[in-house]
Amino acid sequence: MEFKGDYHTHTLYSDGRASLEEMIIAAKAQGLQELGIADHGPRNIGTGVKNESIFLEIKEGLNKLQVNFPSLQLKVGAEADVLNLTGELDISKKVIKELDYLLAGLHPYIIPQGLQGVDWILENQIMKVFPALKERVKTNNTKALVEAIHNYDLWAITHPGLKMDVDAYEVARACIRCDTLWEINAGHKFPSYEKVQEVAGYGVDFIVNSDAHFPESVGCLEYGSWVLEKVGVPPEKIKNAKVD
């Protein structure tokens, strides 16, 4: 299976290790047709952009670089953080309107919104010591992600279930209702074959991304190809697959 684009990549603007141009050169070398830059939202501790206006700076930078790479379509996105159980994100709708697409995911190390958000994030941490909280935490993680899917026009959710467990069925239902893609994260080799098989059975559409933080990782989507082919997901259900 071949892919036309990679849309979950990070640069020096967040916790990536390369400039916009370096990531673009890597994407061109991989033969991609499209590259999306989706740096972390500003409330991701130690890894997010300084503030949300950075996304507009990235957009301007990509527009300037586009003329030098006519064979590669450049897109600006964001990987927003879910901040609380009502699904608020750390990027305003004003800035979201300026993006080509929006990704969002659950991350355990964020600055949450409100006391309820603080409790939710803390419980994800102390669950390791108090396993009795596991089901409550999973329920709250699911609620937060489902609310975000319903409240925003998300193109895809990133690595659902990674480090913050969710109810795959409930999240899949929300994705189908809202036409939101389920990411296969090739960088983390996540989710597993068994989970992809489960989620595919619910009828979601997928996207495969690298989550690249280095130029060497851009377009490295082999895990996605392997797991989706093994499960038997047709290319028509994979947004960035090349379809004959």
Describe the model:
This protein is α/β, with parallel strands linked by helices. The chain has a single domain, classed as Metal-dependent hydrolases (TIM Barrel), CATH 3.20.20.140. It is built from 8 helices and 8 strands, in the order βαβαββαβααβαβαβα. The chain has helices spanning 20-29, 54-66, 93-96, 114-126, 134-151, 168-178, 193-202, 222-231, and strands at residues 5-6, 34-37, 73-76, 79-81, 103-105, 156-157, 181-185, 206-209. The N and C termini lie close together (11 Å). The relative contact order is 0.16.
Concise synopsis of the structure shown:
The chain has 244 residues and is α/β, with parallel strands linked by helices. The chain is built from 8 helices and 8 strands, in the order E-H-E-H-E-E-H-E-H-H-E-H-E-H-E-H. The protein has helices at 20-29, 54-66, 93-96, 114-126, 134-151, 168-178, 193-202, 222-231, and strands at 5-6, 34-37, 73-76, 79-81, 103-105, 156-157, 181-185, 206-209.
Helix content, binned percent: 25-40%
Quick one: overall form? globular
CATH superfamily: Metal-dependent hydrolases
Cα(first) to Cα(last) distance is: 11 Å
Largest sheet: 5 strands, parallel
Q: Can you tell me the residue ranges where pLDDT is under 50 for at least 5 consecutive residues?
A: none
The third-level CATH topology is TIM Barrel
The CATH class designation is: Alpha Beta
> Could you spell the SSE succession in H and E letters?
EHEHEEHEHHEHEHEH
Average pLDDT figure: 98
CATH architecture: Alpha-Beta Barrel
Q: What's the total helix number?
A: 8
Portion in beta strands:
5-15%
The largest sheet has its strands arranged as: 4-5-6-7-8
